[in-house]
Amino acid sequence: MKHISILVLEDATMSCIDSSYQILTRINDFLKYQGKEPFYTVEMAGLKTDSVLNNGLYSIHTNKTIADISHTDVVVIPLLCGDFSKTLLKNKPYCNWLISQYQNGAEIVSLCVGSFFLASTGLLAGKKCAIHWAAKNEFMTMFPDIQVIDDSIITDENRIYTCGGGYSYLNLLLYVIEKHLGREMSVLASKMFEIDIERKNQHPFIIFVGQKKHGDQYVLQAQEYIERNPAALYTIDELCTKLAVGKRTFERKFKKCTGNSIAEYIQRVKVEYAKKQLESSDKHINEIIYEVGYNDVDAFRKVFKKHTDLSPVDYKKKFRV
């Protein structure tokens, strides 16, 4: 038996709170059909018994306040919305309770950008964290001591689970169910709720957005030039000459500010340009590849798949407008 506390945080989204509750409680029904005992006790927990979400659009009645819960086995942190800095201040009263539960052995399941709150407690320091691609730059700025990953939608480290973007939290719930009750139950939940159990990363959905909140004028100029000229052919030496900066020093500075080398940044911009062409134009795939400056079609296909987890052909089939 495991006791699960789903936190009703300020600025949490109602949909992820309710879907987490529905999925986890339904597991007990699946067990009952198999002639087994229930495994989860699921409760919604807040600072008070009645909470208002989404600027008053929803109201929710919690089962207990966190003051009434001395011990829980699993804490689910919901997806948050709004200004993260303000949201973290609103939810600060939860921090000591969450830290205490983790220190007493609880697992923590953080859904998507709920990881902003989890990170604010210090429990993610030195650990890996998956985050929605659109929030990655802001998260890295606020929490530079946390290793953000984007090659997987789920992290599992020392009883702390995080996940990448949007509704990928459904995959995280399946993952946790599998850890608790085995693959068979996870597959059954996948089939009953029609969740794609094989989703492993968020690469196909990422729109590359460079980190620009670094305050370096020359790096910003380089980024803007690269982004304005996705199909242009130029060398890094030519770019540095254009900006009147020394190549070696500038490359180090660019990497520090953006998290990408200049070559990687150029590559990401070209892939993003190719994605938009594949989505909206009738051009042949090879024509698009040549247009972004690649003479070696196979080389670009490898680069494209590295960043999207799909071949250009499969990407076009999936996202063609």
TrEMBL record:
Pfam families: DJ-1_PfpI (PF01965), HTH_18 (PF12833). The keyword S-adenosyl-L-methionine does not apply. It comes from the Bacteria. The keyword DNA-binding applies. Residues 220-318 form the HTH araC/xylS-type domain. GO terms for molecular function: DNA-binding transcription factor activity; sequence-specific DNA binding. InterPro entries: Class_I_gatase-like, DJ-1/PfpI, Homeodomain-like_sf, HTH_AraC, HTH_AraC-typ_CS. Keywords: DNA-binding, Transcription, Transcription regulation. Coiled coil: none annotated. This is AraC family transcriptional regulator. The lineage of its organism: Bacteria, Pseudomonadati, Bacteroidota, Chitinophagia, Chitinophagales.
